[in-house]
TrEMBL record:
GO CC annotations on file: plasma membrane
Matching SMART domains: AAA (SM00382)
Statement: the UniProt record of this protein carries the keyword Iron-sulfur: no
Domain ABC transporter, chain residue ranges per copy: 351-585
Domain spans labelled ABC transmembrane type-1: 22-317
Protein name: ABC transporter ATP-binding protein
Gene3D superfamilies, per database record: ABC transporter type 1, transmembrane domain, P-loop containing nucleotide triphosphate hydrolases
Origin superkingdom: Bacteria
Signal peptide: none
Entry membrane topology: Multi-pass membrane protein
Record keyword Nucleotide-binding present: yes
Family: Belongs to the ABC transporter superfamily. Lipid exporter (TC 3.A.1.106) family.
Amino acid sequence: MKAPLSLSVAGPSVRQHSPALAAAATLVVLQVGVTLLRPWPLALAVDHALGGRPLTGRLSSLAGMEPAELLMLAGAASIVLTVVDGLLELMILQVAEGAAERIGTELRATMFERAMTRSLRWHDRMRSGELVSRLTTDVGRVLDGVVALTTSFLPDAVTLVGVLVLLLAFDPSLLLIGLTVVPVLAGLAVRQRARIRAAQQAARTESGRLAGATTDLLRNVRAVQAFGRIDHACGEFADRNRAVLEAELKAVRVDARWTPVADILLAIGSALVLVVGGLSVLDGTLTVGELLVVSSYLRSLYAPVRGLTRLSAVLAKAGASATRVREVLECPEAVTDRAGAWVAPPLAQDVRFEKVGFRYEPDQPVLDNFNLRIAAGETVCLIGPSGMGKSTVLHLLLRLYDVNTGRVLIDGVNVRYCRQLTVRSRFAYVPQDPWLLDATVAENIAFGNPAATRADVLEAGRNAQVDEFIGRLPHGYDTSLGESGIRLSGGQRRRIAIARAVVSYAPMVLLDEPTASLDPRSAAAVVNAIQTATAHRTVLLVTHDRDLAAIADRVVSLAGPELRDRPAKPPIVTDLRQTTAGGRG
Ligand SMILES: Nc1ncnc2c1ncn2[C@@H]1O[C@H](COP(=O)(O)OP(=O)(O)OP(=O)(O)O)[C@@H](O)[C@H]1O
């Protein structure tokens, strides 16, 4: 069967939890046995108490009992069997659903870690919302499939056969007696429904929070990678993930408890029918056949809990979802470190681009034979028309992408041979869109350096001129910014992003259009912040802003096929097509 095979996507976790799933399957087989035993009290009543057949063999110990006593015994046995059946159902649901939720928790964590380490080329194609839906809804459907396969198939088949047999005959006269339990059942059902709904809603709320946090982290994957904070992101995700597990397990418990309660009530109804109906048979006012049919019919009211048709739908959905989950888990695209990769040099001499060629798409070159040297301590401004590849230059320095041809060197060492995290630790990155997290101002600044103390954060804030507006926020540095820092102006957000770069103490600062779309006053504040914050560091800044370009030692123009380089003050143009690098590599 195609769908179950495709569920192997959850394989490693399923294997890990196979003892629990095997236990659930064993319980299911036991439950089927109990289900098969359940008509026997009826047979005892019909054949021996009512039909007068002698009690021989295993039943000989009951030989001295009066028919009415035998009926009572049969009713009690029926209740006991139903209680056992209900308890087995409770255990099956808890064991199987509990194992499934744990498998889901592990599957989600593996997928998330996988996504966090995939290359940005892959993230460029995969929309974060799509990824969230795969992580949540699709994993959920795979789990539905695992549970349905373990617990539903066998009992559903037995139930179906049972209902067909019981419906062979029909008499409604005793049905009313059996239905006396229905008002109680209905009252309990209404109360239970409210409980189940509340538990499910709590679980959905946690799932929503998980989706929100995940979208936030995935949207900020560049920052997470650039600042080497993958562990922090995975930790935050794990907390939310655990909250979902707890909420889901609670919902499972509430749901599972309901099944035996309903079963017991229906069994009492059936027992009532058995006793009263049996007494009526003894009085001669009811036939044995009528009694059998009504008892069986009552039981069948609750039997079709899960239909075989529903199982095939669940498996079909699970199969489709498993394919989408597998696409994430088995995606090979990643910027990888070679075995024995080095620690990146400290950036004491320079960074260089040597004959660099790069393309995002196979047929669209962005950089071709690009050469640039930036000496340690120098501030270089990269200008040029939109779309020429200025931001791309910064991405290549961070090794967010690997170059197609040529080399990017730090102190003469090719970054391709260095561990990604160590390369990224050499740079403090202020992206065009200052990615702010749904956290406080201080937490957003400290994102640039996990080891930063409160004093470091405050000093970075001072240097980046966050202090200038922090007093207007209700809780100062402890003000929560909301998703994407929506509570701040563009200039304020940029200054927080600059403070984040300052606190990292990386030797080189990369700034991508830090004054873009700001009014002159905000732009001036940001330029001031940059000047203070980047003192004594190597800087590469991308900008269209003349005032900002004026703080650079040198301006490099990425203009069309021509690459030109000129000092900012006074402007002299140099042809950058001649290779500027020449050291080790
Ligand atoms: N993730 C991506 N996938 C495919 N193409 C991309 C991607 N990012 C950028 N590009 C393309 O690469 C080229 C260079 O983009 P880049 O952002 O580096 O330009 P830019 O000079 O910084 O532009 P701007 O000044 O508008 O920010 C553009 O043509 C852009 O469409």
